[in-house]
Structures are given as structure tokens and as C-alpha cells.
């Protein structure tokens, strides 16, 4: 239940020539507190409730618990969420033995593109695609929960 | 998904001669905001995640969504909750055609006993047991989410 992820900015849209899956994601937060984030996500025709805890000291791993829920129920729960919905497309891109999740944001976060890679350990190496930019792992500003309150366009 | 409930204080412990079921409940909150309460509850050997919205204007009905979750997962989620766990016993008591849930609190809320009855409509009548005291429906002070932060013993 602890995830190790590293997050990066994305330099350009070259990843769009490489992705093998694309999903539309809308999500809101029942709590944006980084100590106990509660997220409602609709991903195409599926929906999830996800709870995340705080980052460990190195900022690389975070407690995460997720449960699939009914899409209609998720739509009702989204109405209860804090103001500031997140709307984005997620592209899955293979790079050697890893999969990058690349999120292109819309609405108030238009212009922001970030990529995440999940690792088996905090020291695991991975090949960096050419379009991968600056690392922003552990920077709360780039948490979706924070982007919902303080969106990219307002930076 | 909208519940209509009325809540009352309890005058004495006479209900303990009448109950047909008793459960121990421990619960914490991932959010205590009355607009979007998120509760983790362990009830004996079962566990639930519950989201509640705000009361309607009359204070009688409230959006409620509940999902059963794994008890071990609930224990992990409880560790993420805001400080202030709720510990109580719940007694189920039949009164004519209705069932009262009577909660006897322990710990920081020791001394508080409240009873709730669920109704089919806001105007439905019900028989009041003799041990039923003052109505406190819609008073946020008696929400478990608020009792976790501002417990009865501190009033």
C-alpha cells in the first residue's frame, strides 16, 4: 500500500507519438490535506475513491489506498468535493521496462504536462525518455490536490 | 442516498433493558468538514468508509454514501485520520415500528448518550421511548466528526 513514484515535468509533446493508451480523467477532492488526501476520480467509464497519506522523508513514497466505486455514485460524490475540479488526459508511454503516466492538464491547469513513473524501490534506475524534463518529485505544488486549489494558470 | 434522521439525548440507561443488539464502534475522520465528512468506521469485525454531505435547510436529511471495506485496510486508514478517535457502543432498540440506535460514548466523550431514529420522510411520526430526552437534530456539536475534535468532556 506504499507507492514509490517519481514525477517530472515534460518538455514537449513528443510523447504523443509513443503512447499506447489514453484516458480522460476528471477528479475532485473530499480533502486536499496532504496528510490525508481523499480523491474521487472518474476515468472514462470507471471510478475510484483514493486515500493518500503524507510522503516519507525522502519524498519518494506515499501511503495509497484505492477502491473502485460505481460511476454514478462517483458523480454524486464529485458534487461534494472542494471547489476546483481537475480535468486531464492521461497517456501511458512505455520506456524500456517502465511505464510513464503522462498527464496533460486542461481548464485552469492548461499548459501543464507532468510524467510519473512507479518504481519497485527508491533506488531503482530507469531510462529517461528525451521528452522528460526537470524532476518535481515531492513538490506539493504539483500534487493534483494542490493544483485543484492553486491551479497552474495562477502561478 | 439521502438519509432522514432525528437525534436525541438520552435521559437514563433504561434502554439497556430493551436492546436486541450491541456493537462496539471505533471511528476516525479523514475529513471533519460538515460539507464533506469522510469517516472510517470499524464495527466489531466489519469496516466501512462513509461520506456525508451537509444537512438540508431543515437539518433533517443529509447525503450519505457508504462502502464496506476490509478491516485490515480500515486499521491502516484510521492511522491517517485526524486526531481524536471516537469509541462507543451502539445499542439497537425497537420502539413500535422504529429502531433506535443508541450510542454510549467512551474516552473523551464519556457521559454522552445519544439516540437516532431513521425516518422514511421528514414528517413521519414515531413513538418516543420514555428514556428519550431533548432533540438535538442538526446541532453540529453532536456530530461524531465534531465530537472527535471537541469532545463532550471539554464542553
TrEMBL record, chains A, B:
SUPFAM superfamilies: CYTH-like phosphatases (SSF55154). Residues 1-149 form the CYTH domain. InterPro entries: CYTH-like_dom_sf, CYTH_domain, NeuTTM/CthTTM-like. This is CYTH domain-containing protein.
